[in-house]
């Protein structure tokens, strides 16, 4: 079985809802967020695909910036109307897409012209990509997908290794040897991002269904489902 880009994105969106149900609605089982670890890598893979196939990279960045502002503004409005019991809405994957795209631009410039300036640009862009919600994990995905997107065998090796190294770097200072216990593995669950790999390998390289509504569906669905789940969580 092979999957088109549309099918893979639809699958990821369904799993994303499960992940955010756990995040925003109290007393939901932890396995929902375990399953949800596959979502971000799938979408980041398509950010890399989009980087190579988009006709206008500047327009892509502007569009992501616009949606990041919509997400932030909408979240602030929702939390103003219904104040959060806890930390509120922090999610904004559009912002991370911007950081990821800047890192891709830096990598691409350096690979085409290996100058000191371009190398410094890569270092700065990599550091910048550590800042938002996905931190080093998203950066590990971007590097793996950029360098090995055309070699599935190398990707199948490099991606899990990159994710596991990222998990070790983040959680070892906190957990030390406990990271290798069953309870430690369940607590440091970001390593479960490796399970996105089989679905990425099923991608057939085709966009699939491409109606206008489908093209912009994620941009609308992502903030809308976050806001709805947040509101549900405040009343249960």
From TrEMBL:
This is Conjugal transfer protein TraX. It comes from Bacillus thuringiensis. InterPro entries: TraX (IPR008875). Pfam families: TraX. The keyword Transport does not apply. The chain crosses the membrane at residues 31-48, 60-82, 88-107, 119-145, 157-174, 186-204, 216-233. The keyword Transmembrane helix applies. Keywords: Membrane, Transmembrane, Transmembrane helix.
């Amino acid at each position: 079985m092979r999957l088109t880009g549309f099918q893979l994105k639809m699958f990821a969106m369904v799993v994303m809802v499960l992940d955010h149900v756990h995040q925003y609605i109290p007393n939901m089982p932890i396995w929902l967020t375990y399953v949800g670890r596959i979502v971000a890598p799938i979408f980041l893979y398509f950010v890399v695909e989009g980087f190579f196939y988009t006709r206008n990279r500047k327009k892509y960045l502007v569009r992501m910036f616009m949606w990041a502002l919509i997400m932030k503004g909408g979240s602030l409005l929702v939390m103003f109307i219904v104040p959060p019991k806890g930390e509120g809405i922090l999610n904004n994957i559009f912002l991370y897409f911007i950081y990821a795209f800047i890192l891709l631009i830096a990598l691409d410039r350096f690979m085409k012209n290996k100058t000191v300036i371009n190398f410094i640009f890569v270092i700065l862009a990599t550091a910048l990509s550590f800042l938002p919600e996905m931190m080093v994990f998203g950066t590990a995905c971007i590097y793996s997908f950029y360098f090995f997107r055309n070699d599935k065998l190398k990707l199948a090796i490099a991606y899990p290794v990159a994710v596991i190294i990222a998990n070790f770097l983040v959680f070892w200072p906190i957990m030390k040897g406990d990271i290798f216990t069953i309870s430690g593995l369940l607590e440091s669950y970001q390593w479960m991002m490796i399970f996105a790999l089989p679905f990425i390998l099923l991608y057939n390289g085709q966009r699939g269904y491409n109606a206008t509504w489908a093209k912009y569906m994620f941009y609308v669905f992502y903030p809308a489902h976050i806001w709805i789940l947040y509101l549900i969580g405040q009343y249960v």
